[in-house]
Amino acid sequence: MLLSDCFYKRTTHGLLLIVAALFFTGCAVPPADRSAALLESPVQIDSAQALQRMRQSQDSNKTSWQLLAIRALLREGKSQQAAELFSQLPQKPDDARRQEQSLLAVELKLAQNDFTAAQTLLAKINPNDLKGTQAARYWQCMVTTQQGKPSPVLLRALMAQAPLLSTMQEKQRNSDATWQALTAMSQTQVDAIKPAAGENILQGWLALRRVWSDNRDTQDRLKAGVSTWQTRWPQHPATRMLPAALVNDMNFRPASVRKIALMLPLSGPAARFGRAIQQGFEAEKKVAPPASGENSELMLYDTTARPVPQLLAQAQQDGATLVVGPLLKNHVEELLSSNPTMNVLALNLPEHPVRRDNICYFALSPEDEARSAARHIRAQGKHSPLLLLPGSEISERVARAFADGWQKQGGGAVPEQRFGSLAKLKASVNSGITLTGAPVPVTVARKGAESYRRGRVDAVYIIATPEEMGYLKPMIAERNGSQSGAMLYASSRSISGTVGADYRLDMEGLQFSDIPVLANNNPGLKQLALNATGNDYFLARLFAMGADAWTLANHYAQLRQTSGFMLKGNTGELSASSGCVINRELPWFRYQKGQVVPVE
Prior knowledge:
The chain is α/β, with parallel strands linked by helices.
């Protein structure tokens, strides 16, 4: 047994004996000592007992029992009663009770989902002044205020909390949460973290993430890398208690890709979409590492020629071990109705995706891009975005996706405005565009979301073609002034490789998202995609989707088995949700002096 473990057990045992004595010895110990000791101890008493003691006590002793009652009420989910009792506390408590009252004020705001107020109150507390279990509660409050959003603040809070935890179960949860936050961050976000002098634990976590990032594609290399890391970091808490998700990565069971059934529209009106995906899939298969690609047999099935249920039966008869596709939404719905027994990577997302153990969903959709835009715009500190959309059915889906994503980030309702057709834009070019609109209806209002305030817009997310954008940007400036303060953002729909230098100068300051491969992160594949699709950027994106579909197919087991699993794809940074819906995080760029530069 380690000396530290022995000391902890003896200390805990002694504390419990002291607390028991305080409860059962009556007048042998003054009442003030009894309640004050409990403020800093891990002992939990119920609210009824604390309230009874409060009524029977006086002066500072009464205040201590009142504080203990508030803590118990919050723990029991009785936040309204806790708030009422908190309002009755003395305005100027003594030093022994001031820290507890300050900490309870934070916990009360968190119970009310007022994260902003909780953060403000936390900033006024010095954790070094806290005693006993108060420090662990402080860092838990700091973790909770981050609402699960990965950030350096969340990482440091979890690491500060770790040594204050007592049970192995709590320590494992902390290790898992730290790893989840670290792996949910993009490589760019991780690279931006600069450990201060003495932050050895943070340095160790970053080194472990690098091992995982560099070796996660190969199970044996990952195991060897983690083992080497443990040797180099013998005193790191994760050395003795690896995150469960990392252990799963090291021991995942690979899914068979021996025979892949690729189901796409290969004839009819949608054939050009299906062929672009097929070309990307086959191109990536050719350049894949030998261990993953050389033994895979690819079988093609035309979803235009025969119903999907028949194709599934045929694929199963042909010995397929994995289905990639179909592409069209109605065909995905047919697949779901057929209850396939094979593993499936569907290439579209139905309105209400069905969660099944053998189905993942990968879509290259404007809704997916809109949700990514909501995260990006919110991260840039914007509070009042407006959607500027064409008058089409797809605009409704994009509006709902952005509004839902915005509220998930804590934002309020989002107004939308329609600009109609290109002809309408040309007709009204001299009148400009007023940045105003009606809120997009969403199914469920999110807790903690900002309330909607009609007023000044500070961000505009635009869905438009390059030609439409050429009219929209000057029309916004015409009506609102170039110094209106509203930052303009656009989807990849506005981006084409055929625009000239004059257009890029006219778009000065506009931010836009696009898939990484068209941003030259893989010049060879970009040129291959453009050559195969006749320089059609829309089809080139589908080509890149096909390439990523091959990669995802070869990591199917990890998508299903590993929480937080991510891949750097050609269509974005890819990760799987709990229902195995593939999320895409897109890089952002802006026009600057006629050039396209990354947004830092």
